[in-house]
Write a structure and sequence with these properties.
483 residues, alpha/beta, 9-stranded mixed beta sheet, 17 helices, 14% strand, globular
Length: 483
Amino acid sequence: MTVNATRGHRLSAATRVLSYAAVATAAIMVAPVGASAQSADGSSSAGGSLSADGSSSADGSSSGGGQSDVRTPRLDEVFNGFVVGALDAGTAASRVESFKALTSRDSFYDEPPLTGAERPGTVLKIKPVDMMFLGYKPGRIDAYKMMYVTTGLDGTTPEVSTGIVMIPVDGTPAAEKKVISYQEANDSVGAYCHPSTQWTGGNPLDGAAWSALGPLALMFGKGYAVVISDVGNDGDPDPHGVFAGKYAGHAQLDAIRAAVSAPSTGLSAHAPISLFGIAGGGVGAGFAAEAQAQYAPELDIRSTVLEGMVVNTRNFMRTADGSIGSGFAFATLLGLEPKYPEMRIDEKLNPVGNALAHVYRTQCQTPAYFTAPFVPLETLFVGGQNPADIPAFQHVYDDNLLGTEAPKSKVLITSCAKDDSPMSLVPAKDSRELADKYRAGGTDVTYAPSDCSMVRMLTDLYGWGTDLFGMQTIDWIEQNFAE
């Protein structure tokens, strides 16, 4: 073996170890794997599951009828046979490949002109790509970047979005695979921050990608194809409207349409589908579920998972204001304005607020939006205005309120059970009320809140963290695919 070959072998082995470590870190590998029953308040703990009789607890948690598999996965389920095999079959990216992924601007994101007659879900471009994370390219995954047509807030005006499709190669033909439409905790307003860049070697520090490693490992282990929308064109240098719920919902549904209609993916237009959205992605998933019956009735959507999503933007602004998540609350406003330009945010900001907004609009969420923890938002606005109360913003908050339509699919809502953690930026009451609204409209709802308390974080970090990532929901998705 030559010196260069030896060096390359060592680099590949070292990178493979790093990839294992990345998944392990994302899974918070610190707690015992032993099972423990769900706590009395309805929150799931390691190995816990909801009761089979559909009974409700004092905080409103309920399985919604029938058996509900909501439980913390074991580490051997995260590091399942497919994941271990994919990492072993992978290779380290070359220095040129890694550098290009981190620094270049892919011409794939150049938009063709639209005529205005394109149908939602029309594929404009698609190309095979290597999945890459932290300079490592796992094997046994077919991946595709795609550009497709979606629609704006009105559901009719054509717009362009991009996304990525990842299909595990495990012996099951793509045409027979079930599909997860997964919307990450992606809150970035800047360009080249989004999933199609994250999973092809760019933006490796983003918390959205790290928090997705565990869920993706479980999804791939079950053989599911995964479709992720960028909610807009990832290469668009203008601020991205990622927090506009109706737009995000359309982009998610149209990403599915594009993925299952593109011949190169091999996916079936009749594939069973589950929507999965967490945090910022949960807003779009909620609106996608509410709109699907009218907007995309041809899609066979069996279930929807909503994890830690903003139900009521106005309430979120009040709760997150002055908390560890102040920067994310401020970014939420900036991620609404591209679809609601009448907000005219700059006119309402003082010089400090304007300077911060100028930076945030061009940045990815990590580390930028962590730079303003505990900052009272009124200190960024002229006259000390609280953004939750600014009159020009009220119609925007109203237009982004979840719960106006009852989804046709089954829905699992899982957020923090109580407002007892620094991570509890979304009022627990909002999620409970959303479950009630959906049930009143006839939706089959499972409300399975998580124990996000500091006590659990200190005593069961693995269960606490995997719940925050939504990993306890994958068995519930599998159950509803089987029905």
